[in-house]
Predict the 3D structure of the following.
Amino acid sequence: MERTPDGTPVGVDDPYAVAGACDHLTDDGRCRFALTRAGDDPAFAAARRADDYACHVGPGGEWRACPHYRSTTDGRECARCGIAEVRLAHEDARPLVEEHHLSYGDADGGGEIDESDDDHPDAGPHEITVALCRWCHAKVHASFARIDDDASPDPEAIAEREGRRTREREESAFETARERYGSDGGDE
């Protein structure tokens, strides 16, 4: 199983097996990295420009072959147990769902580049993240729990989510200013 720089497990053997489409891939199949950050890798950008900025890997391709591949999560739902994020405006509460790194975008990221597999050359290291609730995140790092386990939400996670939903409903209910803050005088 892949490990973090600190040596804790990340919950997968192959991060690319659970990774999504590249963050730089546009809806029309072009490489946003080459379009917007050409100065960061001029040779790469020139090659993409010569091909009308088309992604050289393409949707569903071998992402590990792209030197600028990156797949980060939207953080809306836990990839392991499925619990959905509920964020409350104007509160600094810790999120229910956190970003969990499967692979890191720096050379010291803990993931090992496998150059022995000639069929799937790895141009990494790449940043690959998924969303995990705080409880699944802890289980993955503290044990041999895996991202693809058939898991149910932790009872504490459900209680926290429902508490937030209740507060959310209370906030969305209509109250006049007089009802919310009380009357400062009598009716005229």
